[in-house]
Give the backbone structure.
Amino acid sequence: MTTRPTPSRRALLRALTALPASALVLGEFPGLLGTALAAAPPSGSATRYTIVPFLNSNDGTVNVYQSDDATDFRLAKASAYTPPSNRIRDASIFKHTDGYYYITYTTHTWQDVSTTIGFARSADRLNWTFLYDYTVPIANLSRAWAPEWFVDSDGSVNVIVSCSTTDDQWIFTPYRLRATNSALTAWSSPVALAGIGENHIDTFIVKIGSTYHAFTKNETTKYIEYATASNLNGPYTISRTGDWAGWGSYREGPALVQLDNGAWRLFFDGYGDGNYYYSDSYDTFATWSTPKAMPAVSGTARHFTVIKETVSGGVTLAKNVTRSFRSVNYTTRHWMRQSGLLNLPVVTASSTTAEKQAATFTVVPGLADSNGYSFRDAAGNYLRHYSFRARFDPNDGTSTFAKDATFIARTGTASGSVRFESYNYPGYYLRHYDYQLRVEQADGTDLFRQDSSFVPVTAWA
């Protein structure tokens, strides 16, 4: 998607000074907001990611989008929540132990003094009820921005909020507020996060083991920095600065979630060029993939966090059985092995025995994740991607092969259909193009979803 770049709420802050007056689902890391165990969803279940962003064109309301792969987000409800007064920006979402979803958000547009943060809740993520605006008790407060939920491993609910004072309204410091009751209506006195310091904003924290990992934007350099601490309050040590991850400058609003394959995905607002990006890490934040613009919502959504849940209603596909796979949008065409590659030719009752056998596969537990799926042909070779082409090779026993040959089942576009997401290339799907099967990145279009949807049918052989 190509969009006209739009300025961040802070892109012009310095210039303006010259003018007249972010289902908590607890897994192996219980302190991680919006994190489930890193595994493909079991049969009959689905992964669901939810975001509640304000709009590039309107900071008076938020939409709700959901996705099963953290890449292709689709609109669940437009204008799902409009506060009774003021604005709504930088909404952060989590699911509380009372079963409700909560958002906290910035209550004023960036030009205005903003000493409160807002709270709303929902039973279903789609219909929201305003709770209250909370005045952050900091002396001479000018702005309280980008509140981000953080649930610690002891179960305490916290909000990390970026605040500035009237001494310099554009110099922000991250503060911690801790809920002192389960209703989330009373909060501890604000405590500045030691070590991150002034001139940092949009601080997002996750906890792995005993270490707190903070991602925060340096307002001078416009880069997202990385810090760690052994205590939520700090002191934090900032160890990565500048363009350390290859994300570029003029980036803000970092938000993390762990994907089904164990990778960590960081979302951030690329306000300098009008896009919204994601980048993945497989080594606990040391290195990151080249950032990619999110399909469909890039250029529309602004500053959000992500909640991940495992819900009912996912794909049910039996394993250790033979099946054939029919295209949703080319209903006479089926998967078939041809010269070691996976293609999509026409298969009918009059096809030869050899053709029918080549269009029949054994569905087995995923080699890299038993909740996922792998596919074996009659000769014992496995379907895998190689240079993004779908092909069949003997299992060489390596972890790379296992990952290449494992797919996560996502619900397809037609009743009973399935989309198969690459295990080691999240957001990439088996998709037919020119009747050849490749692994390609989802682009957010209905055509792509149809091209990547297949119906498991009775085996031809």
About this structure: The radius of gyration is 24 Å. Confidence is low (pLDDT under 50) at residues 1-36. Helices lie at 13-16, 353-358, 399-404, 446-451.
